[in-house]
């Protein structure tokens, strides 16, 4: 009888732990991401970002980048589970002929979400800023060099 009760308690605790691990993804913890924002590059080029969600643990985003007159590209982002049910960031862009990449979730906490590739060659961090702004940091490692790109997406008025 003790073994049966212990097994039941273990099953309940594992079930609760799994539910707690997913709760931030399904709850309102990513609502700070929702909205329309713009980042202005040093050269004056604009990057427009629109996030929708979360709905059922998924946030979607569309990014419109204008680099120089007449040059634009579009990126589609999904923060949510992939086909295998693993939570992460899927990105497809017209600059890569819509080839998609998937980066697994590394951590999530209030006002911050981090995705990192298994080989640690790429990391994407989104974080809440004051005034309904969203910061983003993209880190890429190649040939012994790390490239860090920072963005400050401010609300579109």
Describe the structure.
This protein is of the alpha+beta class. The protein has one domain: Lipocalin (Beta Barrel), CATH 2.40.128. The chain contains one helix and ten strands; from the N terminus they run H-E-E-E-E-E-E-E-E-E-E. A hairpin with a 2-residue loop joins strand 6 and strand 7. The model is unreliable at 1-27 (pLDDT under 50).
N-to-C SSE series?
Answer: HEEEEEEEEEE
- Please state the second-level CATH architecture: Beta Barrel
CATH fold-level topology: Lipocalin
Sketch the major β-sheet: 10 strands, antiparallel, barrel
Going across the major beta sheet, what is the strand order?
1-2-3-4-5-6-7-8-9-10
Instruction: Supply the CATH class.
Output: Mainly Beta
State Rg: 19 Å
The amount of helix comes to 10-25%
> Which structural class best describes the helix and strand composition?
alpha+beta
Outline the low-pLDDT stretches.
1-27
| Beta fraction | over 45%
- The number of distinct structural domains comes to 1
How many β-strand runs?
Answer: 10
Mean pLDDT: 82
Tell me the distance between the termini: 65 Å
* Molecular shape: globular
Question: What is the number of helical segments per DSSP (H or I, 4+ residues)?
Answer: 1
């Amino acid at each position: 009888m003790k073994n049966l009760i212990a097994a039941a308690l273990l099953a309940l605790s594992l079930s609760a732990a799994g539910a707690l691990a997913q709760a931030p993804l399904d709850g309102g913890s990513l609502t700070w991401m929702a909205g329309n924002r713009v980042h202005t590059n040093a050269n004056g080029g604009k990057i427009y970002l629109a996030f929708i969600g979360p709905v059922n643990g998924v946030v979607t985003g569309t990014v419109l980048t204008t680099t120089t007159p007449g040059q634009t590209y579009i990126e589609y982002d999904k923060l949510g589970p992939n086909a295998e049910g693993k939570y992460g960031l899927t990105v497809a862009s017209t600059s890569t002929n819509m080839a998609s990449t998937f980066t697994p979730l590394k951590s999530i906490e209030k006002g911050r979400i981090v995705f990192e590739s298994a080989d640690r060659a790429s990391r994407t961090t989104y974080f809440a800023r004051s005034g309904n702004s969203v910061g983003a940091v993209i880190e890429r490692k190649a040939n012994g060099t790390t490239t860090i790109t920072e963005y400050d997406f401010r609300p579109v008025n």
